[in-house]
Specification:
The chain is an alpha+beta fold. It has 2 helices and 4 strands, in the order E-H-E-E-H-E. The chain has a 4-stranded antiparallel sheet with strand order 2-3-1-4, with helices on one face. The longest helix is centred in the first third of the chain and has 19 residues.
Length: 85
């Protein structure tokens, strides 16, 4: 699994890009690629958990303009080895 951590600021571009991004997330979840995702309670960022390998997640990030819009920063992207389901 791959964990992607995002950091947010208050940029209006981020908020404008969010609906299309969430639609992409819903499609990835429906296909089984995205296990879970959601913002932190203080809206300072989000955490996404993907099934698959780093190269597939790199491609997902590259294809979604949300990850490079003002107000969104990829704070971490790493392999995760969960012990419990």
């Amino acid at each position: 699994m791959i964990v992607l951590e995002l950091a947010f600021d208050d940029s209006p571009q981020r908020l404008a890009a969010r609906p299309a991004h969430r639609q992409r997330l819903a499609e990835l979840h429906a296909s089984g690629v995205l296990v879970m995702a959601g913002p932190f309670a203080d809206d300072s960022g989000a955490l996404l958990v993907f099934a698959g390998d780093r190269s597939s997640v790199d491609a997902i990030v590259a294809a979604d303009p949300y990850y490079s819009v003002d107000g969104v920063r990829v704070a971490g992207l790493r392999e995760w080895l969960p012990v419990l389901p």
